[in-house]
């Protein structure tokens, strides 16, 4: 049985973790998973038994999961998951909350962990180089990588996620869905020549596929941020980052201390609603927000 790794990086983080009622974990692994139909009911049963809430995606290319529950139950789930040799070394990112971060438990079978529609991209067969959060911070501090090349950050997330927060001076192509990324990054290849490109996303999945695709089309110096923004927050904090990180659960966004923020998501149109926008009379909880409601006298933004 594999030991559960304590990801708390400081005494303060350990105090928060001890006081919180629930642990929220995010994890993924690209690996051949050829019996998803057979395994689905087993995942459903263990999560039901442990009272966990969240989403698990089982795909032929691997697993992606977001789960929330008490520490003891999360640890039991991870021990069970890691008893499958395919996921023995799966890495987990943690945050903490008083409530479970999801309201229900879903185990789904999908074609891909994250939809890109690029079947030749197989992370299991070889990843693009990854840069650790601490190394990236050093590069950003000094303005170049260890070979003296300027570092450019490329956000692979959807535009509404970027609007909640991102790295300073990042390149944001304003994509509406990840399937748009391959075309837009190919079109901008010349503009990124002679630079070291670091792709990033929330937890590492999208930027892992993105970096491999960029290598495949001829980018010669591209990295993925290991563990994504959440791992960067965990290891480094918020330096070189402005705002919060959008997450796909009821918390909506986490700050660099991995704490839920007051940013929310509109129940009607799913747009992100900032604290200032929540003062707008068009924001009605679970009814409307300034993005989807008819114009009224509104708070100036």
Which key features would you list for this structure?
single chain; about 300 residues; alpha/beta; Alpha-Beta Plaits; Oxidized Rhodanese, domain 1; 2 domains; 5-stranded mixed beta sheet; 5-stranded parallel beta sheet; 16 strands; disordered N terminus; disordered C terminus
Short structural description:
It comes from Massilia eurypsychrophila. The protein is an alpha/beta fold and 301 residues long.
Radius of gyration: 20 Å
What is the total number of structural domains?
2
* CATH H-tier superfamily of the largest domain: Rhodanese-like domain
Q: Spell out the helices and strands N to C.
A: HEHEEHEEEHEHEEHEHEHEEEEE
Largest sheet: 5 strands, mixed
Which secondary-structure class do the elements indicate? alpha/beta
Helix content: 25-40%
N-C termini distance: 53 Å
